Amino acid sequence: MTSVHDMPASFSPTSLPCPGESDLVSLRESSVHLASYAVSDANSRGRVFPEAAPQGRSEFQRDRDRIIHSGAFRRLEYKTQVFVNHEGDLFRTRLTHSIEVAQIARSIARRLNLNEDLAEAISLAHDLGHTPFGHAGQDALNECMKAYGGFEHNLQSVRVVDLLEERYATFDGLNLCFETREGMLKHCRREQAAQLGELGERFIKNQRPSLEGQIANLADEIAYNNHDVDDGLRSGLITLEQLETVPLVAEHLQEVRAAYPDLAGRRVVHEMVRRMINTLVTDLIAQSAANIAAQNLQTLDDVRNAPALIAFSPELNAKQRVLKKFLMTHLYRHYRVMRMSAKAQRIIRDLFDVFMTDSRLLPTQFQSAETQTDIERARVVADYIAGMTDRYAIREHKRIFAVEDTV
Ligand code: MG
Hints:
The chain is mainly alpha-helical. The protein is about 60% helix and about 0% strand. The chain has 19 helices and no strands. It is globular. The N and C termini lie far apart (about 55 Å). The structure holds magnesium ion.
């Protein structure tokens, strides 16, 4: 397409030709490069509430835009990935994590002739239902909700886009396309799947999500393994010397040291991490392309009935497992991370208990009829808590429990 900069000096915006139908089709559907088994506007199962086709963008670009404009997306900025937001300005948050996932997922989707917009939309939305304080928060809220159906951040992400966002006049949620929601729901227990209708069907029929959904899932893994190495080193909780026992890291570190013997400090880490991401992405693309070719896929239904095809090579998978184990032992279970997790769990538990005991303490919009059952009330409390950012949860805890604080 010609950009404004290529236009002759005499060009004025009013002389822009009206796009013909064929231009709109190519804008809406960049399907010229899409594989026949990729998700497209044409084979999408569509939205729960029918809407007119978007003008000048694809259905999945529209989904991505709706996600970016949502309140839940903005809250990701102040939600913990591993390090609590106030611990440092350079650590990943759920927002920067989601953006990194989207970047990786798009690269992979494009190379495999799959729907890049869908892979991006799923990636940006995949953590929308995360509680404050990362996994410690999720575990605490799940524990609190045990008697009331449990809490799972993955299901909560779907709940956010299906129900909790209040932006449209005629429906709750964002009314995203089926394939975006399908990709967000990575796992689900069978009993829960039965309650999710069409969305839960694949867990009962043992089917796979779209390849774009599978990509977002593994892009998530590539992103967090690598940025947790980076953030872990930055925090000083783990060291390069320790990481030399992890083959995936050691190989790339040696490569950097061989190429730049005098390089020191953060540049060594960045050169190493970018090589690791590149190795993982390249391996994933090659292995997945081979898996796809072996299946002779024709349609999206073929994808759903095939085994999971987006995958690392067995060799790299094994190496990644060693890295994950290292991070679990040395970073996620480091005593300083555990202390913060313990604090976080206490905050979540205190808030849940106090709101369940006296729902009059909830903000007005979360209070409802006295006829509510305990299960219904617990879900409202869980929605309220899960929607909090780290600092909002800390503030709310103070407002309720610190006598000297304002209410
Ligand atoms: Mg994630």
